[in-house]
Amino acid sequence: MPNPRKPLRINVGFLINSPIGIYRELFFDSISVTSDDGLTISDIEGAIKISRTPQGLFVEGQFSGFVPLECVRCLNDYVQPLHWEFSELFAFTRDNITEAGLLVPEDAHIDLQPIIHDFALVEVPIQPICKPDCRGLCVECGQNLNELDCGHRLPDDAPFSALKNFLDPKE
Fold first, then answer.
1. How far apart are CA 73 and CA 135, in angstroms?
2. Alpha-carbon distance 151 to 145, whole Å?
3. Is 128 domain-assigned?
4. CB-based contacts of 61: which residues, under 8 Å, 6+ apart?
5. 15 is a domain residue
6. Minimal CA–CA distance to 50: which of 121, 112, 132?
7. Longest dimension (CA), the chain
């Protein structure tokens, strides 16, 4: 069962000696995690299914949460929703270990925080944008064009000014 102080550290001792095929589902709600690299994931919600297999404990999870990011266009802070899934095997012996290198610890407490962090990190956009139609900053004065149009325009001899001819005025 989850520990209130470490909600992602789970005692799986009851499954280790259970028959093959037995599983347990656990649900998580409103958990926040901050990792060593500074990534904070808040309002984590989700569920895991831990199944007993001949090789170890197979953990499948579906989660969602939110991370604070900075938009690369307008430089405003915003909150990005994330959704991710994972499946990992915690092996009983080194003979059955997978690429992830996860073993069932001797104390039978598995910590899902590193797994949840790693799979959530993959879902964080490389170039986060606060909204699809974000207009960014004016290259001339730095005004946030989402808030106010400063009136500056790119000169016609700008390197990419010819691309505006390809835009469809109806879109």
1. 7
2. 10
3. no
4. 46, 47, 48, 49, 85, 86, 87, 112, 115, 116
5. yes
6. 112
7. 74
Taking phi over 0 as left and psi of -120 to 50 as alpha, with beta for the rest, 74 belongs to: alpha
Domain around 51: 9-123
Q: What is the rounded distance in angstroms from the CA atom of residue 125 to the CA atom of residue 1? A: 33
Read off φ and ψ for residue 52, nearest 5 degrees.
-85, 125
Cβ(70)–Cβ(127) below 8 Å: no
Residue 2 falls within a domain, yes or no?
no
Whether 107 maps to a domain, the answer reads yes
Q: Which two tokens stand for residue 72?
A: 């690369």
pTM tops 0.90, yes or no: no
Number of domains in the chain: 2
Per residue in 80-128, pLDDT tens? 999 999 999 998 888 777 777 888 888 888 988 889 888 999 999 999 9
